[in-house]
Amino acid sequence: METEDFAADAALFARMRHMWEEIDPVPADLVDRMVAAVAVEDLSREYALLTLVEGSFAAVRGESDTATLQFSDGTTSVLLHVTATEDGGRRVDGWVDATALAIRLVQGEREWAADPGEHGRFAFEEVSPGMARLRLVVRAADGELRDFQTPQFEV
Fold first, then answer.
1. Edge-to-edge order in the sheet of strand 121-127
2. How many of the other CB atoms lie within 10 Å of CB of 43?
3. Of 49, 88, 90, 137, which is most buried, counting CB atoms within 10 Å of its CB?
4. Cα 126 from Cα 98, distance rounded (Å)
5. CA–CA separation, 132 vs 142, rounded Å?
6. What are phi and psi of 102, to 5 degrees?
7. CA-CA distance, 121 to 114, in Å (whole number)?
8. Beta 121-127 vs 110-114: how paired, if at all?
């Protein structure tokens, strides 16, 4: 292709862009709406909303050495109770309201696995203090498998 052809194409595309900007302009808030839509979709797919039920993060390290955390994404809810053990580790007791097929507590490169018991109960023993994330594979009411993942929290 010749240089003149590129220049002619660029001029034609510039005129077409100008015409469409006049006829059908991009909505002023399109970028903001798209960012919000992607963020909401990502949140509902990948993360859960953290709600402190009782206690606080400071309570894990405070005199009571316990904290209760609740995570939910609107369809699945998980309740965690974190307690300090005598040797300085943590015990994490949990309950999930969906049928869980796999439950893992992830802390950096380390993972603990738990089997769901009756009524969705599970537990992890001798977890090192620090930041952690809970990952589950759950079966939705329609039978579809999906991942549930909490934000990081401190144990």
1. 49-54, 66-72, 77-84, 90-96, 121-127
2. 14
3. 90
4. 25
5. 30
6. -145, 140
7. 9
8. unpaired
Residue 39 is predicted with a pLDDT of 64
Taking alpha carbons only, the member of 113, 111, 55, 109 closest to residue 84 is 55
CA distance 138 to 150: 13
Distances (CA, A) of 19 to 22, 28, 95: 5, 17, 59
Q: What is the largest CA-CA distance in the chain?
A: 80
Each of the 155 residues of the chain gets a pLDDT tens digit; together they read 577 788 888 899 999 989 998 998 888 888 777 777 766 665 554 445 444 444 444 444 445 578 899 999 888 999 999 999 988 899 999 999 999 999 999 999 999 999 988 889 999 999 999 999 999 999 988 889 999 999 999 99
What residue type is assigned to position 33 of the chain?
Answer: R
Burial class (CB in 10 A: 0-12, 13-18, 19+), 151: middle
pTM: 0.60
